[in-house]
Amino acid sequence: xxxxxxxxxxxxxxxxxxxxxxxxxxxxxxxxxxxxxxxxxxxxxxxxxxxxxxxxxxxxxxxxxxxxxxxxxxxxxxxxxxxxxxxxxxxxxxxxxxxxxxxxxxxxxxxxxxxxxxxxxxxxxxxxxxxxxxxxxxxxxxxxxxxxxxxxxxxxxxxxxxxxxxxxxxxxxxxxxxxxxxxxxxxxxxxxxxxxxxxxxxxxxxxxxxxxxxxxxxxxxxxxxxxxxxxxxxxxxxxxxxxxxxxxxxxxxxxxxxxxxxxxxxxxxxxxxxxxxxxxxxxxxxxxxxxxx
Length: 293
Hints:
There is one protein chain. This protein is α/β, with parallel strands linked by helices. The chain contains 5 helices and 8 strands; from the N terminus they run H-E-E-E-E-E-E-H-E-H-E-H-H. It has a 5-stranded mixed barrel. A hairpin with a 2-residue loop joins strand 4 (99-109) and strand 5. Helix 1 (8-50) packs antiparallel against helix 4. It is elongated and about 100 Å long. Mean pLDDT is 83; it is low at 268-274 and 280-293.
């Protein structure tokens, strides 16, 4: 009854099921790993956002890269804005509108500075038109903001290119921007939250980062892949059972006690002209009629 499982068609199905099950296991484990990674990152970012601000020199220094674990930590830094070397960052939409981020170096001491993202301004009539940028406060200011690592093509997904109008960049990369400045920059930048003294007009503040669900979708996808394992096994068993049922249905039905052999077509003694008490093999003598003398 089950020999059909060794036919080529069924052997192919067995191989497919045996390959699909470990593949689904690995995909589920990968999604669970992403869930743990994103959950840990979400918790770390949330803790950094909620932590009280600290002086920037406790976390970063000129020529030193900002650590990923310190992303969005609130820091304070005091210095003087260098408006002569200000820049704008292209292709930064906010609230459904295209615009620019405004970057201005804040000189913190002799030969040292940090880039401050002062906020967002809307784009001009064309992409190459210089936007209207409010001037920063003059003199010494104290900035409170979120510490961010430098942007790269890898961590931002933005492809850098040359040939831009003067004063415009695509990435907030302290190493690239610092090549044309007369001082060393911190290997990252500060995303402004507030500053003292406050200016009369200022760019729109950059929204607080969206921490997200912490990998909740990855958890759901992991459970989904492992449910597919049960579906694959259940479907495999169901196909086998259906095939067995169809084969049994094609077999001839037999009644209990009914002989399975073919009925005999041999004629009975009565129909063959033999008497029941006549020995076998002896033919009946023909009747003769005698005429009357």
